[in-house]
Amino acid sequence: MDLWEYSGKNIRVEMDDGQVFEGKAYDYMSADDNEPYPESITIDSTELFVNEIKKITIVD
Length: 60
Description:
This protein is mainly beta. The chain has no helices and five strands.
């Protein structure tokens, strides 16, 4: 999953634990820049890590 593709778009993210986040994605962080954490993207003030994301949908 390439999170950078969703930066700046309105998305709906379903997490492995059942939580759902919806909003404009921003602040993409590659794994190299986010060490020791994996790749992530932020919605509102919540950082979402790629290894915890089940599904991403673009919302218009």
